[in-house]
Design brief:
Length: 151
């Protein structure tokens, strides 16, 4: 595979997500469709302090992976961030693209939060996130994994 770039996305509507939406739905996931719908209706645009939406682009500038960082909407704690709407296109999996993107989101989260949480219910994703240093435990509301940052 060629060179990839992780970039912060400031306006999701400037990008074609049809392929990622179709692929994720075929995989049984609706969260990329929710990402687009929530962005369009303004309920989650990743634009508050400590939030961001990030994409990985291939050499042809095609969006091949996406993931976001929000203040955790399930907690009243301002020090908890949530990794959300994370998806890597099938043909780009298992070559470091997902790790590259999660590490960028972790680096961003460390600037604003003491804890980063996420929710997944698949074994493959569990293995992926634990390999990156997340702990599998539901200590935080609506989460399956967390990572604490040093103060």
């Amino acid at each position: 595979m060629g060179k990839f770039e992780v970039t912060q996305i400031y306006n999701l509507l400037n990008f074609d997500l049809d392929s990622l939406v179709k692929q994720s739905k075929a995989d049984g996931f609706r969260f990329i469709e929710r990402l687009v719908n929530d962005y369009k209706n303004g309920s989650n645009t990743f634009n508050y302090s400590g939030e961001g939406l990030f994409g990985v682009f291939n050499e042809e500038s095609v969006l091949v992976a996406i993931g976001g960082l929000n203040k955790d909407p399930f907690s009243n704690e301002l020090s908890i961030g949530r990794l959300r709407r994370f998806y890597v296109s099938k043909e780009y999996r298992r070559n470091g693209i997902g790790s590259l993107l999660v590490k960028k989101i972790i680096d961003e989260a460390k600037r604003y939060y003491k804890v980063l949480v996420l929710h997944t219910d698949t074994e493959q994703a569990d293995n992926f996130y634990t390999s990156l240093g997340f702990t599998k435990e539901n200590l935080y509301p609506n989460s399956s994994h967390f990572m604490k940052f040093k103060s």
